[in-house]
Amino acid sequence: MNGPKKEGQEMPPEIVTARLRLRSLTTSDLAAYQAIVSDPSVAQPAGVTLPLSAQHAANSLRADQQQPLAYAVTIRPADSLVGTVIGYEHVDALGGLDRTAVELGYFLAPALWGRGIMPEALTGLLTTLTRIETPIKTLWATSLATNQRSQGVLSHLAFKLIDDQMMVPNPANMALERHLLYRYDLP
């Protein structure tokens, strides 16, 4: 992991943990990105409409790359994408952009579920955010009420359950689904 940053610096280009390397998302990640989010067990909680076209996947990857935090999760020493950790811009209750918060989103290839990879990746991110100067002070995350794996990850990392609400995760089908809202305040 890189050392502390000065005010105004970008996030570190990579975060290294015991088994993982979180690095910048690149266009060369597109094939793996599309393959992972095309899996129904990943697409449904992520609100992705299937089938996912190559153009939609490319647009999604480009949009993710533009977010305040955008990391490809890789298992060292290999460098191929197995998941992502994205901190999306956060809009406050009044509709304004809150630069002190991000909406945390993440996914992992289902073949790697249950191995502690996502908790390790998110712990690396949280540790980095506490060690560097950053305007980010709060991370928000939502989980489908049926996604117990994601809830377990968030609870394990000391995210606090704030609300239980009905939301439309995917505007394509407009179905309301129960979501749990979590919050993590950096020390």
UniProtKB/TrEMBL annotation:
Q: Name one GO molecular function term.
A: acyltransferase activity, transferring groups other than amino-acyl groups
UniProt xrefs under InterPro entries: Acyl_CoA_acyltransferase, GNAT_dom, N-acetyltransferase
For this protein, the record's Pfam families field holds:
Acetyltransf_3
Q: Which positions fall inside the N-acetyltransferase domain?
A: 20-187
- Which superkingdom, per the lineage? Bacteria
PROSITE patterns reported in the protein's UniProt record: GNAT
**In its UniProt entry, what is this protein called?**
N-acetyltransferase domain-containing protein
Q: Where is the signal peptide?
A: none
Organism whose genome encodes this protein: Levilactobacillus acidifarinae DSM 19394 = JCM 15949
